[in-house]
Amino acid sequence: MKFSSYVISSIILIIICLSCSDESIRLYHPPQEDPEPEPEIPEYYWLLKTVTYPEDNPGFSFRYSQEFTYTDNDLMKTIQSSNIKDSAIVVDYISDKKVSYSRLIKQSESTIYYDSLLVFRNDKKQAEYALHVRHTERTSNGKISKQVTINDSTTFIYDDAGYIKQLDHYDKTGVTSSLNYTENYTIKDGNITEITTSKGYRFVYTYDDKEYAAPSDYCYEMPRNTFNMASTCWLMASLPFLSEHMGTKNKNNIIQAEIIQMEGERKYADIKYNYTFDENNLVSQIVMSGTTKYNKTFENYITSFSYIQKEKKKN
Questions:
Q1: pTM
Q2: Cβ neighbours around 17 below 10 Å, total
Q3: What is the pLDDT confidence band of residue 29, given thresholds at 50, 70 and 90?
Q4: Which one, of 31, 58, 53, 13, lies nearest residue 291 by Cα?
Q5: Tens digit of pLDDT for each residue in 64-100?
Q6: β-strand pairing of 44-52 with 89-95
Q7: Residue spans per domain, the chain
Q8: Which of 214, 190, 212, 193 is nearest to 203 (CA)?
């Protein structure tokens, strides 16, 4: 009897097992779902939007604040000065070897300046020379006259590592005897450490050990933005935003500039630069303090920077 019960129970169990479909098993053991993919974290980069100078000036050659716009390919498109007389500077990348900058200045009700600046670059995208032409339009007694009033140029020479080593400015394009300004550069450990000028000044620079912050070019008395250059012409005063074409960049950041009048080795200025970086490691301001124009003391002169945030495109 016990044996019979055992046989019957075994048969029933076998029938139950055979009758179970895959679906019924899944009712008790649901399949594991694939985990949701981690959301992609976007990557960003930044373009310089504004450079702002204080209205007061402790003795530097005056600079107007600037605002920049860009093309879809992140090439500089316009540069708008805070000077109400100036139109925006329009930038045109004509080709890999030519870049133009143009602007209009309403000097008065009767006088308008039309400036054009053409930069010629070599295969390494270094500026070899730049031409500047100014047409002046005057209105008098209902008649309009227009003539070329400035036609100057600048040439650039580089070392084998791509650093600029000499700059020559000519009052008249194509006339070598019109050379009126020269700068010679000393490079050490990847930085411009000294500039001597034909106006009798030597600029000596000291650096930190941090990665170079490009917007610092817009600070007073930085290379390519000195009072010697600013007093020459629009072409020379424009070198901060032309610096992208002027060879290999400094490796580090300038923290001190000493300006010496070479005749008599008289110190003209001694400036210290203190950098503030934001959460994206972008320089947000540079505070200048020290002496300028024969020991005139100043402090907390702040050049500020803002940026456009852009998302990196996926390949």
A1: 0.83
A2: 8
A3: low
A4: 58
A5: 899 999 999 999 999 998 888 888 999 999 999 999 9
A6: unpaired
A7: 46-311
A8: 193
